[in-house]
Amino acid sequence: MKKSIFKIHYAWWILVGLCIIVGISKGGLNNSASLFLSPISEELNIGMGDLTLYFSVAAVFTLLFLAFAGKLAQKYDIRLLIILSIILQGGAFIAFAFMNTVWGWYIFAVPLAIGGTFLTVIVGPVLINQWFKKSSGLALGILTATGGIIGALVQPFVGRLIVSDGWRYSYIVIGVAAIILVVLATIIFIRKLSSEKGLFPYGMEEAKQGEDGSNTTSQNSGVTLAVAKKSSAFYALLIFFFFLTAIASFMIHVPTYIVNKGFTQEFAGTALGVFMLGVVFASLLIGVLNDKIGTKNTAILAMVLGIISVSILLFAASSSVMIFVALILFAFVTSGIGIIAPSLTSSLFGNKEYSQIYSTVSIGLAVASIVALPAYGYVFQFTGSYSGGLYAILVMLVINIVVIFVAYNGKKKLEQAGLWN
Question: Is there a contact between 143 and 18 (Cβ–Cβ < 8 Å)?
Fold first, then answer.
């Protein structure tokens, strides 16, 4: 019905809804969390390491929730789960406004993690996998890029709001707005697949072409989780996920890093806005490069750009222009979590048991958040500088380049053993 009127497959309207939902949850709530750290630390006299420890609490519950989040998405109405999740995540932001001790952040990190994990990690891949039998990579790229656009709009606004009205009022405004917008987007755009209503996956006709079933076989080729877990490629990918997330986690500390370099809080908000624009550009370019030069080469290029970015932050951060350049380049690394990570999983292990393999190696993402976020904070708390953390990031970027080669060598062994089918 909608297809005949608008000449657009309903899968693309699902993507519009996802862009709003995930963009607000990730670009609006999660990414703006870093802007609150410095003013909270100063007003309540809480050490930066102690305060950022709440991110680790959230990461622990993210790790626990990932174990069954996918099953919830299969069993219950995903629209209800989305609404409940934003109430938890946005509600945690509202609750933060009334806290006076660091324990408040530790407590409300739990609903923040449960709601945020479902909205930023689960719902996008699940719905895109359901609705897109073709162009799923493009859909992921658009989803990630849109999160950057929303973040680019929200970050400067939040930075100015904190400066003008304080961090408590800003928490409330952002939390309430997020809940309202996500609930509306869910009601308006998100639908279930239904043959009776003519709601089929995009590209289903192409997927069904050919009586020999060649397309179906191609889509389901690969290895099982049991086989993958016995390969060097699996553990190399797990390490890659761990370090990729550990590297990207530094973005939480960037506003504090910028302020510590002598810039204003308002400039820090503007810088994050520039970074989010970089995410838009990087996401779209990574998607194109992934198709043109392959996932392996794209992943290596992203790590190299990360090395250049961190080098600028270490040795040329006195210039506002160079900070902008560094953050745009760093966006190629952070965008990798949403595009390169799932693409590497598919490239290395195929689609036979993709969701199980991806959710398992995603443990590396959660563990990295537990370790890296407070580690950077404590480095700053005890040394007064982020230099030690930045040098550690350089090492992790180099290691990631090495493990990419190890992973693809492991894939060759699986193919030679006849385990890929």
Answer: yes
3-class DSSP state of 350: strand
Residue range 9-192 in CATH 3.10.180.10: no
CATH topology of domain 220-421: Growth Hormone; Chain: A; (1.20.1250)
The Cα 60–Cα 251 span in angstroms is 19
Spans of all domains in the chain: 9-192, 220-421
Q: For residue 282, what are its two tokens? A: 């990087």
Distance separating alpha carbons of residues 36 and 113, to the nearest angstrom: 17
Give the C-alpha separation, 366 to 23, whole Å.
20
Residue 281: name the closest of 136, 147, 124, 134 by CA: 147
Task: Report which of 172, 161, 150 is spatially closest to residue 21, judged by C-alpha positions.
Answer: 150
Tens digits of per-residue pLDDT, 244-302?
A: 989 988 887 888 888 888 787 778 878 877 887 888 888 888 877 877 788 899 999 99
pTM score of the predicted model: 0.71
